[in-house]
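Q: I'm building a small set of examples for a reading group on sequence design. Run inverse folding on the following structure and report the sequence directly after it, with nothing in between.
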C-alpha cells in the first residue's frame, strides 16, 4: 500500500560555490520522493538564476556545475537573470520552464525546480 501523503526530503544548506568563485546561496533544498522533483530556494537579489540552475543540477548529478553543458543550449542566461533579478518576478506568477542536461527546469521568483526530463 502506498502512502497517500507525499514525502519530502529536506536539507538546509548554505553556500554552494562553483569553480570560478561565484556562488548561489540556496536557503532551502527539498526533494519530493515520489515525483523526484527537487526544489531549491535562493535570494534573487544576491544570486543569479543562471547560476542556480547548473549548481542544482550539478549537485544532483554529483559533478562540478562547470562540467555541465552551457546553459545557452537551453535558454538565454542573461534574459533569465533579467527576468528574476531584484524580485522583478515577485507577485506576478512568472515562471520559465525549459529542458537542461536531462532535467526539466522551472525557475520562479526565488526558486528553481528540477525533475528528470521524460
Amino acid at each position: 500500500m502506498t502512502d497517500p501523503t507525499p514525502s519530502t526530503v529536506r536539507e538546509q544548506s548554505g553556500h554552494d560555490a562553483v569553480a570560478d568563485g561565484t556562488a548561489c546561496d540556496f536557503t532551502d533544498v527539498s526533494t519530493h520522493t515520489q515525483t523526484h522533483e527537487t526544489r531549491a530556494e535562493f535570494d534573487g537579489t544576491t544570486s543569479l538564476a543562471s547560476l542556480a540552475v547548473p549548481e542544482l543540477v550539478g549537485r544532483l548529478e554529483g559533478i562540478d556545475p562547470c562540467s555541465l553543458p552551457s546553459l545557452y543550449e537551453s535558454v538565454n542566461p542573461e534574459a533569465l537573470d533579467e527576468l528574476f533579478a531584484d524580485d522583478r518576478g515577485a507577485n506576478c506568477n512568472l515562471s520559465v520552464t525549459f529542458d537542461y542536461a536531462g532535467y526539466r527546469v522551472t525557475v520562479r521568483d526565488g526558486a528553481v525546480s528540477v525533475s528528470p526530463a521524460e
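The chain has one domain: 8-116.
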